[in-house]
Structures are given as C-alpha cells and as structure tokens.
Design brief:
By secondary structure, this protein is an alpha/beta fold. Helices cover 29% and strands 22% of the residues. The chain has 4 helices and 6 strands. β5, α4 and β6 form a beta-alpha-beta unit. 22% of the residues are buried.
Length: 112
C-alpha cells in the first residue's frame, strides 16, 4: 500500500514546534515499512525528513494530485486532513490537542 504521511504541523508564531506534533513517527514508520508499505513524506523544506521519498514545498494542486495517487494518508490534525477531505481521500488523522468530534472529518479514522 502506498501511504503519504504528513508528520509535522507548522511552527508556532513564537518559533516553537507545534504541540500537535506526534512524537512517535519513527516507531510508526518502522512498523509500516516492516509491513511492506511504501511511504512518501510531504512537507516543507525546513522539516525533518523521516523517509527516503520526501516531497517538499508542494503546491495545493500538487498535494491534491499526490493524495489522489496514493492508497491513503496519515497525518496530524492540520491542513492536510482538510485538503484530503476536499478531494475525497480517506485517511488517518492524529489528534493531540484538539477534539476530533469538532475538527475531524467522519470519513477518516480519527485517533485521539
């Protein structure tokens, strides 16, 4: 299965890492790769690369195309989950700070 991951939320205005960031990406990636999944990371140039295929600084159109070309996605409660919803791609949204009942999309697996 081809999975696109969106591991990081944008830095806060004060320059701090966002509290929505999920700290166990390396462990999750290891499990997914051991199961034979192909992982693609999408994010910004300034973010830490976690997998070999890292697509940086994509436009909204490019992100939409990437989402539609994969089987599913895993990401934080941030912009990508809303973009995925808008193009009809179901996935897994990881929530840490906000309520998935309020901010999640029922089509996804929303993990709190």
């Amino acid at each position: 299965m081809k999975i696109v991951i969106f591991p990081w939320a944008k830095y806060m205005r004060n320059g701090q890492k966002h509290p929505k960031n999920y700290p166990w990406w390396p462990e999750l990636i290891k499990l997914l790769e051991a199961d034979g999944h192909e992982l693609i990371q999408a994010g910004l140039e300034s973010e830490t690369q976690l997998v070999s295929d890292f697509r940086k600084n994509l436009s909204i159109a490019e992100l939409s195309h990437l989402l539609l070309s994969t089987d599913t996605w895993i990401g934080l409660d941030s912009f990508p989950q809303h973009l995925a919803w808008s193009v009809g791609k179901r996935g897994i949204a990881i929530f840490g700070q906000s309520d998935p009942v309020i901010f999640g999309h029922k089509e996804n697996v929303n993990v709190l």
